[in-house]
Amino acid sequence: MSKYFANLDLNSLSPEEICHYMEERLRAQLPYCYTNSEFYRRKFQECGADPRDIKTLEDLRALPIFMNKDQERLNAVESLERDGHPFGTHLCIDPRDIYVTATTSGTTGVPTFTYSLTREDVDNFAPALGHRFVMNGLQYGDRVLFIFALGIYATTISLFGLRSVGGVPIDVDARAGSELMLRFAAQTRPRFMATTVSLAEYLIGKSKGIIGREVGDLKFAGVFVTGEVGVAIPEVRQRLEEAYGCPVYDYWAPAGHAIAITCGSREYLGLHAVAPDLCTAFHDLVDPDTKKPVAIEDGAVGEMVVTSLKRQAAPLVKFATGDVVQLSNQPCPHCGFPGHRARIIGRADDMLVVKGVNIYPAALKKVVESFTPQVTGEMRVVLETKPPRVVPPLKLRLERSSQVSDEDLAGLANHIIKAMHDQLKIRPVIEWAAPGSLEKSTRKTPLFEKRYI
Asked: Which residue range or ranges hold the AMP-dependent synthetase/ligase domain (predicted)?
C-alpha cells in the first residue's frame, strides 16, 4: 500500500503539492476545451470567464455548473442532427479519431457516450483503472471473472485497466445468463471476480443447482463490486463475504476517470481516490439543490463535480455527476491512504422529499438491511406521484424472508417503522412481498416501483 496513487510521481508529494500538480494540468486542459469545443466556448462566455484566468482549484470551484446528464443528452442530439455523430457538441476532436466509446448505463435516462476516448486517453486512464485492483491483491497473470453487460457499456472500459496491469479478464456478458457465468467460473478458476452487488447476490442462490458447488467453493481471493450502493451496508457485505469466503471491495470510476476503490478495512472507510491527477471529482462539490459550492473539508457532503485534467476526446468541465457523497480528506485509519476518500450517499436525482425531509434510497436500504434475516434485504420504494416530493406516507415494498410467519409481519413492520423514524425521521407504510418475488437484476436492481403515469 506504499504506492497509493497510480501515478507514482504523486506518492512522494504532500496533499498541497498534489493540488498544485492538478492545477498545472487544469491550466492546460481548460484552454484546450475552449479552443476545440464550441459548447465550452459558449459556456465560458456566458459566465464571463476566461479559461486562462482559472489557475487554481479554488478558481474552478467558483465557476457555475456547465453540464449535467440532461445537458449532455441535448449535446448528443444536437451533434447527431447537425454533425452526424452522437458524441456531443463538447467533443474536442474529429470524431474519426475516437479509439473507443462506451455509454452510461441509462438507468436515469437515455444513455450518453460519456466514455469516448482517444488511444492516448485510454493509455492515460488504463494504468489507474488497473492500479486499484493491484492495491487489493491482483497480481500479474491473475484471471478475473468479469461479469457485466459488455460491449457498448461503461464497465467495458475497466478491461483496459485489468489488461494494463497483467490481469487476464474472463469477460462474460451478464445478459448470457447465470448458467454460462457459473460454468465459466468453474472452468477457468479465476482468482477474482468483478461484477455488480445484485449479480453477486443472485449467483449465490444459483451456483449449487448449476455447477453442483456453492460460490464459496470457487475460492476467489476477492470480489470487486461496482454500480450500486451495497457493500457500504454492513449486512450486505457480511452476506457476500460469508457466501464467497473472501473479501469484497467496492470500486468506482464515474465518467471513467474519477477512479477509486475501498481498502480491506472491516469498517467501510470510503472509496479511495487513486488518480487525483485525472480529474477534480474529489476536490469539487456543490449543494445538490442550489448547485452552490461546498467547502472541501473533512466530512463535507455534496454532489461531485467533474472537470477533466488530461483528456482529449470528450473532456468534462464543471460536470455535475448527480452522485452525492460525504468526503474525507484525512488519511485512512486502516491503510494510511493519504488522499481523499468518499462515501456514496445517493444519487441527486433519486432524492425524495417527505414532509420537508430529504431521503435517499440508500439510507432506506441501510435501515431495511439491519433487519436481516427477517427480511431478505430486497426492497422497492413505491412512487404514486412523480418525485422528488412524496405525499406522505412514503410506501416501501419489502421482501419478507421465509422464516417469518404471517402473524409476525405486523410486529416486524412496526419495528422497521420505528427504526426509520429514529434514524431518518419518517414513518413509512410497509407493503410485504413474498420471498423471492422481487426480482434481482443482472445489471442494476431498480430502486423504485412507479405506480403513476
From this structure: 86-307
At residue 442, the pLDDT reads 60
The span from the CA of 319 to the CA of 300, in Å, is 19
Task: Find the domain containing 410 and state its range.
Answer: 352-450
3-state secondary structure labels for all residues of 26-84: HHHHHHHHHHHCHHHHHHHHHCCCCHHHCCCHHHHHCCCCCECHHHHHHHHHHHHHHHC
Residue 253 — φ and ψ, nearest 5°? -160, 65
Does a structural domain hold residue 246? no
327: CB partners within 8 A, 6+ apart: 282, 285, 296, 297, 298, 299, 300, 301, 302, 340, 341, 342
Question: For residue range 105-132, what is the model confidence (pLDDT) as tens digits?
Answer: 665 567 889 999 999 999 999 999 999 9
CA 35-40-43 angle, 5° bins: 130
Check which CATH number belongs to the domain holding 437 and give it.
3.30.300.30
Beta-carbon neighbour count of residue 452 at 10 Å? 8
Using DSSP's 3-state secondary structure scheme, residue 301 falls into strand
Answer whether residue 251 is part of any domain.
Answer: no
Asked if residue 258 belongs to a domain, the reply is no
**Residue 154 pLDDT exceeds 60:** yes
Residue 430's contacts (CB-CB under 8 Å, 6 or more residues apart) are 396, 398, 413, 416, 417
Number of domains in the chain: 1
Place of cell 406521484: 385
* Secondary-structure breakdown of the chain: helix, strand, coil percentages, each rounded to the nearest 5: 40, 20, 40
At 325-383, the pLDDT tens digits run 999 999 999 999 999 999 999 988 888 999 888 899 989 999 999 999 999 999 999 99
Mean pLDDT to the nearest integer, 65-75: 96
Do residues 366 and 342 lie in contact, with contact meaning Cβ atoms separated by under 8 Å? no
State in Å, rounded, how far the first CA of the chain is from the last one: 51
